[in-house]
Amino acid sequence: MEKYILKVNNLCKKYGNTMVLQEVSLSVPTGSIYGLIGGNGAGKTTLFRILAGRSRQTSGQVVLADANTEAEIIKERRNIGFMTETPALYPNLSVLENLYINQLQYCGKKDADSANEALELAGLYGQKQKKAKHLSLGMKQRLSLASALLHNPKLLILDEPSNGLDPMGIIAFRKLLLKLNADNNVSIIISSHILNELEHIATDYGFLHNGKLLKEISSSEISKSADSLEQYYEKVIEGQHS
Fold first, then answer.
1. pLDDT band, very low/low/confident/very high, at 241 (cuts 50, 70, 90)
2. pTM of the shown model
3. H-type alpha helices, the chain
4. Whole-number Å distance between alpha carbons of 238 and 214
5. Tens digits of per-residue pLDDT, 186-215?
6. Beta carbons within 8 Å of 85's beta carbon, 6+ residues apart
7. What domains appear along the chain, each with residue ranges and CATH number?
8. Fewest C-beta atoms under 10 Å: which of 120, 177, 207, 209?
């Protein structure tokens, strides 16, 4: 098994005269839950869009598993599940029909077995006939996760998945991610502003600030030098202004 599910080397992204990502290099261990932390405008979503193939870097290299050529990376992206902050759903279609739409868009055919398996993994199987517009926000997040799981990905990229969830919804979603990681060996990259929630699940962290990756560190290393992830993050950011 490869040591890293993802490596990014000196990645830059420029929009007009604005450099959004500046020589970002990071390494995500295989089997890890990697928390990407940064404020608004740090470049997290831009980085995720590049990883998912929805945007192209200005310069730098992405290595997915062992794939590093453009053709190999395009093929390897089939092993990525991508979940955005605000799920794109068809409100008048059922949960199952929403998954079928995704299958038709990305695979060209419906597959009831894989759709039902994804719903089972996301804890949504019992709601599969319910229309999407009648789902709670937590259930909509689970449906978005089920869509990301349709093709049994090796890597999940989650952009603020807990946004808008109530405390019980956050706890349930956390347990679901831990189960996917432990039972299905899914590596996960997750961005979140809720640092104490990330602290419950992440094994590794990267701190992104103004388009630059300031530091990468394991959760065990943080515990040696700070009382909490929040305290450590404050130290990292304050170090930029001292």
1. low
2. 0.90
3. 44-51, 70-76, 95-106, 112-121, 137-148, 167-184, 195-201, 219-225, 229-241
4. 11
5. 999 999 888 998 999 999 999 999 999 999
6. 45, 159, 160, 161, 163
7. 4-88+154-241 (3.40.50.300)
8. 120
